[in-house]
Specification:
- The structure is a single chain.
- It is built from 13 helices and 13 strands.
- The protein has 338 residues and is an alpha/beta fold.
- The radius of gyration is 21 Å and the shape is globular.
- The protein starts with a helix and ends with a helix.
Amino acid sequence: MYSRMKISFIMNNFYNNENNGYLFSIQKGMVANFYNQQFCQGKELSHEEKLKYLKEKISSADAVLIGAGAGLSTSAGLTYSGERFTKYFFDFAQKYGITDMYSGGFYPFENKETFWAWWARHIYYNRYVSPQKPVYNKLLELVKDKNYFVITTNVDHLFQKSGFDKNRLFYTQGDYGLFQSINPQIRKTYDNEQIVMKMMEAQGFIKYDNGIYQVPQDKNISMQIPTELIPKCPDDNSDMVMNLRTDNSFVEDDGWHKASQNYYDFITKNKDSNILYLELGVGMNTPIIIKFPFWQMTAENKKASYICINYKQSYCPEQIKEKSVCIDCDITEILNLL
């Protein structure tokens, strides 16, 4: 737990870039995390009343800030375990005992050829293949005529693929569709679609009439790619890695900084307005980026409302109970009802 003095020092010395929405949001999250929170379910309403409240708030709000976590993509069908994992990673499961896509991303593969075979599949099926359910499309229908903005920790790019305005999106943690150099001096990112497709073909995946690579019927695919397909940086020929925030080597490129500034402009412009903070599928993995800041900004604004939709992880602090509605349900079900 941070002391008040330490929080003040951090804010004044590290989070004082007025155009950096990411750091500004974390500042808000740190403030919310400082206080001991007693959690509740928000307003005591029936399920039907909560749906009516949600619909009315979206309609009447002057601004809607959407905060999206992994639960939203899971609801859309991008599951990292179960049938989907078994279908595309059965060989890795058998040889290495890997049980899901998430944990497999941390496996210490014995060589780069195997490492990139794994990641080519991971990137392809979670970035370049559309999800089974049109959850993102339905969400867009609800807010497309509103003054909205989206901050997300997801890296699957589904908001932009579903038609959301890219100038109203902030992907804080990276993008499966981008590589970065291991050279810390190169602060750029590189599109990876073409090389990922080549790696999929090299493993033996077959592109069917629908344009999607699938496991062939005989399941004869390789767990390695040719050495010459190992991605290299175009600028200095160094090795490449995913543009994902795993440590302080994460590259925040020009596009990232522009999105961060757009986010800052939105939250500061609307901080005193009738704004709805709509949190979708955000868990407790990185709550200081979306969940905690949303709580704090709701508390600071008398006109603000907070609505959280998340299966088995829907709650809010007692301090904002009367301004909040928490819906413990699958996001797809709620959007279908709306």
